[in-house]
Amino acid sequence: MKKNDVVSLTIEDLGADGMGVGKADGMAFFVKDALPGDKVSARVLKVKKSYGYARLMELLEPSPDRVEPLCPLHRRCGGCQIQALDYQKQLEYKERKVKNSLMRIGGFAEDEIPMRPIIGMESPYRYRNKAQFPIGRDKDGNLTAGFYASRTHSIIPVSDCYLGPELNRDVMERTLGWMRRFDIEPYDEKTGRGLVRHVLIRYGFYSHQLMVCLVINGGFLPHAEELTVSLREIPQLRSLSFCINRQRNNVIMGDEVKTVWGTDYIEDTIGAVKFQISPLSFYQVNPVQTEKLYNLALEFADLHGTETVWDLYCGIGTISLFLARKAKRVYGVEIVPQAVSDARNNARINGITNVEFFEGSAEDVLPQFCGQAGFGGRAAGDGGTDRAYGNPQVIVVDPPRKGCAESLLETIVRARPERIVYVSCDPATLARDLKFLCGRGYAMRAVQAVDQFGMTVHVETIVMLSHKNLTA
Ligand code: SAH
Fold first, then answer.
1. Å from CA of 342 to ligand 1 middle
2. What does the pLDDT look like over 422-447, one tens digit per residue?
3. What is the pTM of this model?
4. What is the separation, in whole angstroms, between the first and last Cα of the chain?
5. Nearest to 293 by CA among 271, 326, 325, 268
6. Ligand 1 pocket, 397 CB below 6 A?
7. Spacing, Cα 246 to ligand 1 middle (Å)
8. Do 20 and 54 meet the contact criterion of CB atoms below 8 Å apart?
9. Among 255, 282, 295, which is best to mutate for testing ligand 1, by the most ligand atoms less than 8 A from CB?
10. Among positive and negative, which fits the CA dihedral 32, 37, 40, 43?
11. 243 is catalytic
12. Digit-coded pLDDT (tens) for 189-210
């Protein structure tokens, strides 16, 4: 088998990144846009030792699980990988993905995994409250906004993404119109010149408050007044700002934000808790599913009003504030300064006084309080007034995709909480970290996947662990 050969494949499986997998000549081929049950012909792109990649040429026989996707650009755009797959099948795939990771990477046996059925979305389109549109020029030099094609940085013009609210289109048309009118240049990654890099839009699904933040390669937004006038015609607008990012890398946001009009944040509510969210703070993208996720966090934490809880990677304090209603005290740790200040504010506006937030990395902050002999560090130095600091009953972690630093897991094990609630957006690093914890006294009691990201291959998982010697 070599490059450019055409092979017929029956697709049997879906890989972790959403590519169909079929076998020819004993070799597994990964084919983008092919789905389990499809019979396809595909052209070989690349051959490795035991597997290869091939491009879908013709759908010889479509899978019974295929549906008509809403978005005409779903194959070109890198945002949705599995829009053509029936939603129920998407859910089955995600549940399998979590279980397979725990088995392959975590080394758990199937019957050791207390998996609950995945929680799906009632309507799997238009669920995202956040969009980041890159701005650039197409090959004919026309100003364009959209999304990156898969694995590239070429922009596919998308005026209406079916994962986000329809309102986004109006924001983008007005922003591009303003750029054309005043000859404002989009940023060019190749030369590092030009001004506007991305447009960040956030929309509070419950509050109906709209935030627009232009990420610019400069310290000043020209013709800000005219942009304000145009965007203010959208009645939901509450906050217009720009974020300075002069770095030549592909990190989207910079670290400085200036408000042009309105408030520095928007508000939204999840359950009974109100949140202020500023442009640099993380906020879950799917508010409907997030509420289900946080309720599970509350159930898994199993609080009775007496517990000390640490919420690591706490963002704007969402999980902390959810848990505070049932805990004695909650300590949150977060690395982004703006998010910490949002978290403190959020405690205040909800009248929640039994929480405290620390700015810093979880791996640096937690050992200052927990897991040291005699509870060590700052807690003891404070005269030991609140020794509960170092003796939490529950630790919650919700890290980004790369998972927890091993040093943090070691601190957690030394702190010996009764329960650990692990919220994860990456099954592979989750499995790695669970292997560590389960090798050191903890056992998984419940594993629950929650679909926060319909049409994509991503899946959120929440796991409850408890200490084998501390709990029944
Ligand atoms: N629990 C929150 C946020 C989860 S996202 C929620 O549900 O909304 C992960 C968060 O971890 C982000 O806010 C990110 O800024 C933060 N973060 C990333 N690395 C970190 C680290 N090493 N220590 C503490 N926080 C970190």
1. 13
2. 999 999 999 999 999 999 999 999 99
3. 0.93
4. 56
5. 271
6. no
7. 24
8. no
9. 282
10. positive
11. no
12. 999 999 999 999 999 999 999 9
